[in-house]
Specification:
Number of helices: 9
Structural class: alpha/beta
Helix content: 40-55%
Radius of gyration: 16 Å
Strand order of the largest sheet: 1-2-3-5-7-10
Shape: globular
Distance between the termini: 38 Å
Number of strands: 10
Strand content: 15-25%
Largest sheet: 6 strands, mixed
Length: 211
């Protein structure tokens, strides 16, 4: 089963919608999903027709609950090192992606899932969204840029509290603190993200890319 679904939007497929497709486990990030997502971003980095990418999760329960810990529990040390290398490559590829990336968030956005959303240029969240870096509660630390990107979004002191405690915040507080750009009704995050992406498409492509 493919862990990533792709949809194209626009007259010339200018908008690519990337759907994390493991709703039965709240779109947890396993090795297959990470590998497929990395392939999608590498393949489209220089797609001349593409103008904007939207990342979202299948279903309304979660954007992504983070790494698939059940899979990780059965990994050898070598398999874990290989997966972590893939994660680093994926997150760096998204960070350096030459086109705007929007995270469209419904429901739980925890740990690696939250770090993935933070890598986007901005986040559109539904009223159901909850954000947390929960790694310390499981004896690990955020390793996907969350330690850097969360303070940049909400400030150092607020970020320290969330990182040290693993506390979650809802979409309204996330908006108040500057983590998300807009909060919409349940089930409407993707629709709103598409509206914004269409406005990006209407802008001058080279100017957007350079900006």
């Amino acid at each position: 089963m493919e862990t990533i679904q792709l949809r194209h939007h626009g007259e010339n497929d200018e908008i690519l919608i990337v759907i994390l497709n493991r709703p039965e486990v709240m779109n947890a990030l396993n090795t297959q999903l990470i590998t497929e997502l990395l392939s999608v971003f590498r393949k489209n980095a220089y797609n001349d027709n593409l103008r904007c990418v939207i990342i979202t999760g299948a279903g309304n329960k979660a954007f992504s609950a983070g790494g698939d810990l059940k899979e990780r529990n059965h990994m050898t040390d070598q398999e874990w090192r290989h997966q972590h290398q893939l994660i680093e490559e994926l997150f760096l590829t998204i960070k350096d992606f030459p086109l705007p990336v929007i995270a469209s968030v419904e429901g739980y956005t925890f740990a690696g899932g939250c770090e993935l959303a933070l890598l986007a240029d901005f986040i559109i969240a539904s009223e159901t969204a909850k954000f947390a870096l929960t790694e310390v509660t499981r004896g690990i630390m955020p390793g996907g840029g969350g330690l850097q990107n969360l303070p940049r979004a909400i400030g150092v002191r607020r970020a320290k509290e969330l990182i040290f405690t693993g506390r979650s915040i809802d979409s309204n507080l996330a908006y108040e603190w500057g983590l998300v750009n807009k909060v919409v009704q349940k089930g409407k995050a993707l629709d709103e993200s598409i509206v914004i992406a269409e406005k990006i498409v209407d802008s001058a492509p080279m100017a957007v890319k350079m900006a």
